[in-house]
């Protein structure tokens, strides 16, 4: 033990100790500065704002800064195609050079979606389902039915649609709902002498619908053709019909008595 303590006091030990410490410091310094050089510590740039730019403009801006990019697409009906709608990282985020920036652009073609089953669903439930399928709610109309605000029919572009049919994403869907008054009777209006538009307006006011339209004789002016016959007829034995009953009319350019 005394020999070891005596060795610690020798010049040789002090020399070796100093050499070992210098070696460790040198190794740590080399590792530290090498790491700084490898990672380019303190060097970088702020991500530019490219949202709202066209893809070509965004790519040019990123490439000028030495940034890489990857592109994904999404369809947003209310935005022009080819526009960058999102970026990751966000603008003004500090990143290293050569960092990959992820861009999302708006595609020009709407993807298709299968129309969901909303028949007999409540209006609110149907609206929620349509939104989840990225479809838009259009106009709502009512027809006689004992159930109120329940979906009876759905239309796209004026055509009746059923569940499973393929539609473009963002399509506007018109709904026909029950009015909850399916068993009520209303007065049957006399449409004789009215034009088609006047008859349609009168029927709407009576909560009836326009049925089949036929023409009698040569029609030279369809806008001014008048109703010369309707079915059901207004008669002493029939003055009321169910709400929503379709009324068929015959139009002519000549009054009935000519």
From TrEMBL:
CDD domains listed in its UniProt record: PASTA_pknB
PASTA domain boundaries: 41-107, 109-179, 182-253
Cell inner membrane keyword on record: no
Gene3D superfamilies in UniProt: 3.30.10.20
Matching SMART domains: PASTA
Transmembrane feature ranges: 17-38
Entry keyword set: Membrane, Transmembrane, Transmembrane helix
Matches recorded under InterPro entries: PASTA_dom
Top-level taxon in the UniProt lineage: Bacteria
Pfam family, one: PASTA
Protein name: PASTA domain-containing protein
Organism (species): Pedobacter boryungensis
């Amino acid at each position: 033990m005394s020999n070891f303590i005596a060795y610690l006091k020798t010049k040789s030990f002090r020399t070796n100790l100093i050499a070992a410490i210098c070696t460790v410091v040198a190794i740590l310094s080399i590792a530290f500065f090498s790491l700084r050089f490898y990672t380019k510590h303190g060097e970088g740039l702020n991500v530019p704002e490219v949202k709202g730019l066209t893809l070509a403009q965004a790519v040019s801006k990123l490439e000028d800064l030495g940034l890489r990019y990857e592109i994904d697409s999404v369809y947003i009906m209310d935005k022009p195609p080819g526009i960058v709608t999102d970026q990751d990282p966000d603008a003004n985020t500090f990143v290293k050079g050569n960092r990959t920036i992820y861009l999302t652009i708006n595609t020009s073609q709407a993807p298709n979606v299968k129309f969901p089953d909303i028949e007999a669903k409540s209006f609110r439930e149907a609206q929620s389902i349509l939104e989840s399928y990225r479809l838009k709610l259009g106009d709502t109309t009512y027809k006689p039915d004992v159930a109120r605000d329940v979906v009876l029919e759905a239309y796209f572009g004026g055509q009746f649609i059923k569940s499973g049919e393929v539609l473009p994403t963002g399509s506007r869907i018109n709904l026909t709902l029950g009015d909850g008054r399916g068993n009520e009777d209303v007065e049957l209006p006399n449409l004789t002498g009215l034009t088609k538009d006047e008859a349609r307006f009168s029927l709407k006011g009576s909560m009836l619908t326009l049925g089949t339209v036929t023409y009698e004789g040569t029609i030279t002016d369809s806008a001014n053709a008048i109703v010369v016959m309707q079915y059901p007829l207004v008669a002493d034995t029939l003055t009321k019909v169910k709400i929503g009953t379709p009324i068929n009319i015959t139009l002519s350019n000549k009054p009935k008595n000519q």
